[in-house]
Amino acid sequence: NPGEALKIMISGAPASGKGTQCELITQKYGLVHVAAGDLLRAEVAAGSDNGRLAKEFMEKGQLVPDEIVVMMVKERLSLPDAEENGWLLDGYPRSLSQATALKKFGFEPDLFILLEVPEDILVERVIGRRLDPVTGKIYHLKYSPPETEEIAARLTQRFDDTEEKVKLRLRTHHQNVEAVLSMFKDITVKIDGNGSKEDVFAQIDGWLTKLLEQRKATSESL
Ligand code: AP5
Q: Which residues lie across from 116 on neighbouring strands?
């Protein structure tokens, strides 16, 4: 729809680089980043009933039940900032039922980005990942080390970032990915996620630029 804010979904295996690319995309395009995993971790940290229940599934690398996830994402997408600036939905939908639920609420993306990365690389990325609790920035001990000693000293690790747990998360991903992709076939772009983060972003940036140009051309011809 010409003139409307962009609506993008980004998907891919655990540690394929979704969060990293979302930082770069929001910087350039000003979309509101809505990450299902971040929303869930916020519930866990708040110690709510939903958070306690969610943590049990997250620790096993399984999908948190729809009863919790669907409304949480729907409510975040319904806030005025997402409506106004457009949204970038990360890590949702992860099942056919989640995809259907969102559609029913009227949320349809313009583009579905799938990041593709070989499995041995994913495991290495998970094990080296660290997070800065102050800025929310994602680091990797080898590929994206912290800029200063001060940041290095405060980095934390996610509770599900172990080799054992990432294998469970990968299994869950493989069980569900085809069903989700089948719903977004017509608007899916597959991105080679196995380059540097700048190279991966250049590919995504190319698609988003193209999408905006197409819209501009459509609105000018109306
Ligand atoms: P979630 O938080 O979404 O985890 P995930 O899908 O496993 O993805 P990650 O956050 O691990 O990775 P990412 O792709 O964002 O990679 P990142 O950019 O950090 O979900 C966690 C759990 O919550 C799930 O297991 C499930 O239980 C639950 N959940 C979430 N959504 C749900 C839903 N919809 N329904 C039900 N349950 C749900 O990068 C990883 C590392 O690699 C970093 O260290 C980074 O610095 C590095 N890196 C990134 N890009 C590159 C590159 N190009 N080169 C080298 N290193 C790189």
A: 192
